[in-house]
Amino acid sequence: MTIADRLTEFITGTTFADLPAETVEFTKALTLKCVAGMVAGSVVPTSGKIVTYVRARGGAPEASVIGCGFRAPVEQAALANGYFAHASELEDDQFPGGGISDITVWPALIPAAEHLKLSGKAFLEAAYVGMEVQNRIAYHASAGTDAMGIVGLPFYGAFGATAAAAKAYGLGRAEVKAALGIAMTQGIGYMHDWGTDTHFFESAAVCRNGITVAQLAKAGMTSNPDFPRWLNMLVGEGKIDFDKITDGLGKAPHYIHNTWVKKYPCCFFTHRHVDALREIMGEHGVGAEQVARVTIHVGPMDQICNRPEPKDPEDSKFSFQHVLGTALVEGDIGLEAFAEGRLERPEYAAARAKVNVAVHPEWPRRYQSGIGRVEVALTDGRTYAREREQPLGGAKHPLSRDEHVALYRKYTAHVLSPAQVEQSLDVILNLERAGDLQGLMGIVVQPQRGR
Predict the structure, then answer these.
(1) Using CA atoms, how far apart are residues 199 and 87, in angstroms rounded to an integer?
(2) 343 and 269 in contact (C-beta within 8 Å)?
(3) Which of 66, 283, 315, 441 has the most CB atoms in a 10 Å sphere around its CB?
(4) Is 92 helix (H, G, I), strand (E, B) or coil?
């Protein structure tokens, strides 16, 4: 069997009964984070641009545009929701594996599930299938594309959106296999777009396109789903062990559990350093006024976030200096850290100036390489250091259910009312018992605060 054949069998044959209890729970936890990211992202300034675009298109009111009080065609709802999920910078990623994320699965799947009135169990099936397909492809193939400056998040995420949509729409084997081939044409994502609106559009577009691909395959569109040929043409011969992509597919270890959960609304490259800095400050009672200098150590890929003077709020989400400086001043990082006017405030400018980035070109050329080391020098001469291979929320340091719930409350509270937060939490935590998603969407589409 080819890779496409094995993936097709997995997509069409997986049922809710095949999911271990811990995988069901983690899939619900990722649902919490993605819904929180979409809700929070619906009110950030950049999202107004995509809302204007989707409203102007009109069309059948098939699915909810989260946080915006209106409905749109499924594809357009997927585009808007996908943009929101990324604009909040709360996407959860896989490392190693090109930073592939859940925001190329849930924003595509949620409007499809709403329109099709999928049960909660069917929704969880499709979410798991989408994540497993994209995480496996990215894990074993993304090293080559990372080195080329191609961002795996939307590039391989096209397969997550397509697999989830194919499962939701009930495509047959021939149709699913064709959809995988069509998805090969959808890859878009380049590092030079980081810090701009286009970076959010790249991943949002594959959410929309995943719905379109599934529908085109169902209509009979043909393709050539030859994974070895496609990947060899992309990254070069002999760089990928193709058998590993589907080895043990559907069995433990499930690749969905490779996902690192984001706690802060900024580039993931900064998170392990933020955790290390916060640990030093908390353990030793250090305040920003006591700090003379912070030095962080990063690899050759992560240095893209070495931005001492970010030009605007979006750019500041990709600035080690602004993110670590904010942690110094506030002790935590929330959405308000990237609000209009924050960059210009003198206390944040002063904190940014204290952050120095030491780049190690000898470290492996991949995301999150080496050890995230933070060194803090105080004005009285004392020094502290802390190292972190992964942040809290990484695969080696998974968050508890209570911590996932706390993140959901943190990032939805400024948009949803307290009652809406708790009602939507209850639906998501009990998805396997839900007859459909209508109750959840009725809550999150029409916020009672934040607009």
Answers:
(1) 9
(2) no
(3) 66
(4) coil
